[in-house]
Structure formats: structure tokens, C-alpha cells
Amino acid sequence: MLHTGPEAIVLGGYVTGLWVARALARRGIRVTVVEGDGADIAGYSRSAAERVPCRGAALDVDELLALLDRRAGSWAGRVLVPTGDVALEAVARGRDALLRTYRLCVPPWDIVRTLLRKDETYRLARATGVDLPVSYGALTSDLARNPALLYPVIVKPNDSRRFHRHFATKVLLATDGRHLAELAAKVRAAGLCAEVLELIPGPDSLSFNYTAYLDAQGEPLAEFAIHKLRKSPPFFGIARVVEPLVDPGVVAELRRRSLALLRAARWHGPVSAEFKRDPRDGRLLLMEVNGRCSFVQQLALAAGIDYPWLLYQEAVFGQAAPQTPTAWDGVLVHLYADLLNTLLFHRVEGLSAGEYLAPYLRRKMYAVWRLRDPLPFLVEWGRTLRKSLDLLRNADARRRLFARAVPIPHPTAEDGRADADHPHARATRQTWIP
Predict the structure, then answer these.
(1) Is 415 domain-assigned?
(2) How many domains does the chain have?
(3) What is the DSSP letter of 297?
(4) How remote is the C-alpha of 415 from its chain's centroid?
(5) Same domain membership, residue 283 and residue 151
(6) CATH code for position 80
């Protein structure tokens, strides 16, 4: 059913921005895409009636707020839809002023901050009984000299947005004390803070997401659970192949843990909580929470759950109608990311040719490709071709790329235990929390 109403402004134009723009446009809503990154592709879609460049949408909160202020006269009454952490922070920080001109459904900054600042997310998770990876404490040079640390360890930033701006990655991996001390110096020089966490072994297929849209009372208007099959890059990245999660026991556990945390945070709106199953003891551990439309939520569209439409309804009408998912047994594939990561990291992932091929033999939807809207796909692959040529010519760039993924012990026994011959698997078993 088509809807004629206020226009929408999608803040951020990469894959999430693309599917959000398409979801809104198919309901008859005119969409403006604000781009802020050289990798953005949503503005090339037929779903985008207007494409507005702004580096601030990807890199700077103040620049994005300044753009929205400059456009207030011509954009008055439109619905703001953030699709990245920077855009979410900008709208939350400027919420009171923006509400005088725009329509939006984003909680106040003190609530949004709880999910954007990972140290605050983890603190609330501990208080609500949600299991987490073992933390060794704040990243300092003194911590790096602690002989009790079991390497490798993960360096996870408190402020992911600023961290990614400096280091071009979501997390860092330290392989020994000297390496951790070097990272501590670099993080301190960047004016950032981070936490040192144990590395959870096991393949990407042990990762799951609980996605939902919560009303003002913390009740789900819609919810959909997802099983990740592969990430980009492997182990540390975002999803590239996902399927619906159909195990009712796991779904119930994800739901219980997620809602306990989100209700304590007073969250309202779209959200996606990622967990990983620890192969050593079977516990579901919280990895992160995204309080916005995210990549994995596109899969829910195939089952009749339209998160952008829920947000739009609430922003315009003050309430949204509940949605119930239908059965859908296919997969969502980001083809560009899957083929590129398979080429670069097949040795890291340790998957067989049959395992790589299996999703393509099933019912599927593609994250970018549309026969009637091919330009975003062509732009994405054109850029990939240029990047590939650059990698062939630049050995340093290849080394930096491969350094983003490391061999991780995968469970080999039928009971899911980590490979007992791997020294990290033997050592980290001592760090379990009962």
C-alpha cells in the first residue's frame, strides 16, 4: 500500500542507507539521501529523489547538524532516519532543536549514549545480568605489563565512531604484551579510551542478532531473530551473509537477554543486539548493540517486518502499528562483501567450497542488487575494481588489509569445544565465568 506523506531524509548512504531508502520509497515516500562517505551508494538508487553530499554524515556530528540547520527552511517537516552511529549521535545530540523543524523518532542523548558508548553498554549489561566477554580492564601501559593476561586479546573502544575514524577498524587485536603496550600508546595519543577483552574463539556462524522495534514502554512492536553465517571482514566485521534464526530456544534466550538490557536503558525505536555463542561453555555473550536501522534488519523485510516504516509511522503519527513476521527460509547476501572476503580471507575462515556455495543454492535476497535498480550495484563493483587494482600495486595496503583478520580456533568436537591443540583455546578456558 502506497502512502503519501512527509518526505524522509535518510542520513547515510551505504548499504543500510540503500535498503532503508528502498523500503520507504516503495511505500510512496519521497526520499532524500544525505551521503558522507566515498563508499556511499544509496544516492545512485532510483529510490533516492535527491542526493545531498555531506562528509559530516559519516565523519563529523557538527557538520551534519550544520547541514540540517542550513536546510531547515526547505526540509521542514521531513522525517530524519539515521542509518549510522554518527548520524544517530548527531540527531540525538541536536534532538530538541531538530524537533522544531523536523520529525524524528530518536531517544534523547542520555539514552542513545548508553548504546553508542560501549563501556556504558557493558556496564548496564553487567547490572542486568547479561553475559559478556571477560574484561581485563581499561587499556593502559600498566595493564600491558600484567603477566596474567592471556593473549591474543581484543582492544574494544568506548567510542566506536571516533575510534574507527583514527584506526579504520572497529577493534584491534593484541598478540602479546609488547604489542598491547604499543596499542595503548597509540590509543592514548588519539585521545581515546578502550577496554581490553578476552577473544572469544569460534567461527562467525556462532553469531546471532535479536532485532526489534520497541515502543515507549519497552514493548516490541516487531521483532525478528537472525543467524549470521559470515562477516566482513571475518570475525571482527559486520554481517555479509545472514539467515533467519529458527531455533526457538536460542530466540527466546536472545529475546530475554536483549529486552532486559534495552528496558533498563529505556530504549525506544529500532535496535539490533549482537551475541556470540562461546564454544567453550555454550554461553551467549553480548558483543554490541546498535540503536538504529542496521544491515541485518534488511532480512526482516522478506518476512514482512519493515523497521523503517515503523520509525516513519511513529515520527509522523505518534504511534506505529505492530507487525508479525511470516515464515521465510532464505538468506540475505551482500554479494560484493561476500565474494571479496572469500577471495581475501578463505584461509582465515577455513570454510570449504561447498560451505561458501551453500547460501547461493537457497532462496535468497541480495543486499544491493536489484534488476530494476542496478546502478548502486554497478557503482559498488566499479569502486571494488579500482580498489582491487590498487591492492595489486600496493603491497603495504595488502598487508594492512590481511592484518584485519586473524586465524581463530574453530570448534572441532561435536560438543562445540574449541580446538584443544590451539594454545589460545587451552589458555582461555581458564578465564570462564561460572
Answers:
(1) no
(2) 3
(3) G
(4) 29
(5) no
(6) 3.40.50.20
Mark the ranges of the chain whose per-residue pLDDT is less than 70.
Answer: 1-4, 55-59, 397-434
Domain containing 337: what range?
A: 204-402
**In degrees, to the nearest 5, what angle opens at C-alpha 180 toward C-alphas 174 and 181?**
165
**Which one-letter amino acid corresponds to residue 87?**
A
The closest of 54, 118, 116 to 85, measured between CA atoms, is: 116
Q: Alpha-carbon distance 132 to 70, whole Å?
A: 43
- Residue 277's DSSP bridge partners are 284
362, part of any domain: yes
Is 420 a domain residue? no
pLDDT of residue 59: 61
Whether residue 175 sits in one domain with residue 211: no
Q: What is the pTM of this model?
A: 0.87
The set of cell numbers assigned to 66 is 550544520
Neighbouring CB atoms inside 10 A of 432's CB total 12
Separation of first and last alpha carbons in the chain: 51
- Cα separation, 200 vs 154, whole angstroms: 9
| Residue where a domain terminates, one of 104, 125, 147 | 104
Burial 284-312 (b: 16+ CB within 10 A, else e): bbbbbbbbbbbbbbbbbbbbebbbbbbbb
Cell readout for 334 is 551482500
